[in-house]
Amino acid sequence: MVEVPLTHGLVLAVILFLLGLVGLLTRRNIFFMMMSVEIMLNAAGLAFIVGSSRWAEADGQLMFIFILSMAAAEVAVGLALILRFYKEYDTLDADAASKMKG
Amino acid sequence: MVLFYIAAFVAVVSTFMVITRLNAVHALVYLVVSLLSVAVTFYLLGAPFAAALEVIIYAGAIMVLFIFVVMMLHLGDKSVAQEQAWFNLSMWIGPGILSLILFVEIFYLILSNPNESRGQVVVDARQVGITLYGPYIIAVELAAVLLMAGIVGAYYLGKEKTTVLHRFLKKQEDG
Fold it and tell me: To the nearest whole angstrom, how far is the Cα of B108 from the nearest Cα of chain A?
């Protein structure tokens, strides 16, 4: 079995990232926007793993671990915000919060 | 190498399904399949430790958080009819087939001779751990601070807001 070429792994990461970006831009449901952000973070992690595998170094995997812990913190805060949002506006439509209070 | 393309195909298809679903739980099931397939590609790229972390933390812990929030957002009586509609068979076919592909792939990987060189240098957990607690120790501490901030932020935002009156003001109103 031959080694997976660097470019193919990077192309996969880019495809996943763009799918996440398209999802983020097209959906107006704040919950789906959150999931799209997760997809994009995961694609970034995939790019790091591909680099790590190409040069057989552990650094790429470390960056993936840091992305993972960052995603965990982000999800905790983001989901708490979604809960508050739903209580406040009774909807998950992101456009509902387009006006500021002041 | 063919295995990598199969896993990549499953990842792209399931991610596409995530962003086109209308139902949040359907999208979550596809998202779990997508994360699992990315974990398989990690394994094939010689990063077994990262693959394990992807399954345990991403597909396990973070997805459970999402599902809890979907449960907390449920909309009373309407949710029962919704639950009935969600439990149909046709919804399970898509993620089921994609997961089956991944399962067959992993099965093949386990059964194939592990000593046979896969043409891929494996960076194992030992090497990752030595680097993590050597040159990257500052980053580990920063990640700890970040997680602490996440916990405090989630607690503060998730707390029910009660109308807080100052205690002297309250006494005045009572009297």
Answer: 14
- pLDDT value, residue A15: 93
| Residue range B64-78: mean pLDDT, rounded | 76
pLDDT attached to residue A4: 75
SS (H, E, C) chain B: CHHHHHHHHHHHHHHHHHHHCCCHHHHHHHHHHHHHHHHHHHHHCCCHHHHHHHHHHHHHHHHHHHHHHHHHCCCCCHHHHHHHHHCCHHHHHHHHHHHHHHHHHHHHHHHCCCCCCCCCCCCCHHHHHHHHCCCCHHHHHHHHHHHHHHHHHHHHHHCCCCCCCCHHHHHHHHC
Q: Which of B44, B70, B128 sits opposite A62 (nearest CB)?
A: B128
Find chain A residues with C-beta within 8 A of B150's C-beta.
72-74, 76-77
The listed CATH number (1.10.490.10, 1.10.3720.10, 1.10.287.3510, 1.20.120.1200) that belongs to domain B2-174 = 1.20.120.1200
Give the architecture (CATH level 2) of A6-89. Orthogonal Bundle (1.10)
Give the closest of B4, B119, B123 to A56, CB-based: B123
Q: Where are the domains of chain A?
A: 6-89
Partner-chain contact A73 B146, CB within 8 Å = yes
- Binned at pLDDT 50, 70 and 90, residue B148 comes out as very high
The tens digit of pLDDT for each residue in B108-128 reads: 877 776 655 556 777 788 888
Rounded to the nearest integer, the mean pLDDT of chain B is: 81
